[in-house]
Amino acid sequence: MDNRVSYRLPRAHGPRIAVIGGGHGLSTMLRGLKQYTENLSAIVTVADDGGGSGMLRQDLGMPPPGDIRNCMEALANTEPLMSELMHYRFTDGSLTGQSFGNLFLAALNGISPSFDVAVSRMSEVLAITGRVLPVTTANVALEAEFENGASVVGESKISYCKKREDCRIRCVRLLPERPAALPAALTAIQEADMIVLGPGSLYTSIIPNLLVDGISEAIADSDALKIYICNIMTQEGETEGYTVSDHIAALFHHSAQGLFNLCLANSSPIPKGVAARYAQEGAAPLFCDVENCAALGVEVVKRPIATVDNGFVRHDPGHLARELVLLHAERSVRIAGKNFQGESYRVEKQV
Q: Which runs of consecutive H residues, i.e. helices, occur in the chain?
């Protein structure tokens, strides 16, 4: 039985949370977090070059819309018909496989002065909770270098190349290196009460954000509660054989030592049949080597945050969001009041 104190504030007064990442893991978490707070800022990678996003990027010269669109859909407060429309994928002709939501954002980008303005306009149409922010508006590519010296450019090619080279990824970098961060993304990090990294693909969803100029520095300088949410399973073509401490070491290597000191890991058991299917693809439940994590200065907190959906292991959005909000309540001291001018203030510090 969970004996921890229940924590629930009106959503308008919920904690200011900056989440950083990309992929389906980020949008899954946002679906849960929006039930607790309206003060959400999702900072999303723009290094994707595969699928429908990659096609639009190549054809129109715009940043990839897919991850950003997924986050906006997760935070949307619209009629069911609009939600269905945003999810619709064409099944015939030259648009086969393309998402209407991606095309809608591409059209907004065409009539907007910049991509971030287009994202803001789409956010208004979808009446989203919080904000979705591209980490940069620069046209960036992701390059991976492997331990045997081989390298490949293109986010969508990294998994295939890793399998071919049969060795670990040594590092990834953005081309051009250290592009300018979106100012609003830096402000969101600076103003956050809690900063969350992940969940998502280590090298292709989370780390690319940390390579944008000023992002790692803003996280390191923040007094907010900083949490890394590690994946539940290792990822084929990216992190086979990795432990939790391997993930943390890679994050620190690409940013700064001690960037965060808290890691939220899953404690729910994985059904044997599901684990066996993953094993056939070279993936396995992520081993939590607590002592090695502690040697890196990171405390691991284990909570039941996993679920099985259609045979796939996922983070449960409700359970994950609840654990994050409870951790914030447990680890932060909140002081509220009014100053001599009668103005309200709130101070939050990590403990």
A: 23-33, 51-60, 66-75, 80-87, 100-111, 115-125, 158-165, 183-191, 207-210, 215-221, 244-253, 272-280, 290-295, 317-331
